[in-house]
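Q: What would this chain look like folded?
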Amino acid sequence: MPARPISLAGDRARLAGITARHGAGSERAAEARRDYRAAKLAEHIRLTVDAAPPLSPAQRDQLAALLRPAATEPDQKSTAVAS
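A: My prediction, written as C-alpha cells:
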C-alpha cells in the first residue's frame, strides 16, 4: 500500500491530537474532521483525475459543478448536477 501524502498524514495527526485533547464532540474536533475529510477527498480526486484520460471542457464543467453548491434556499439540498 502506498504511503499517504504528508499533508494527509499531518491532517490525520492533527485530528487525533485535537480529539484527544478536546473530545470527539468538540467544535475543534468537528473542524479538524472536516479538514481531514476534505484533504482525503482532494487526494482521491487528484489521483482519479491523474489516472483518467483527458476530459472535454463539457466533462470538466460537469465534474466541477459537483463541487460547487447551487443557489438554494438555506434548508434545501444542493442540486448542482442536472441529468
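Helices lie at 6-22, 27-51, 57-67.
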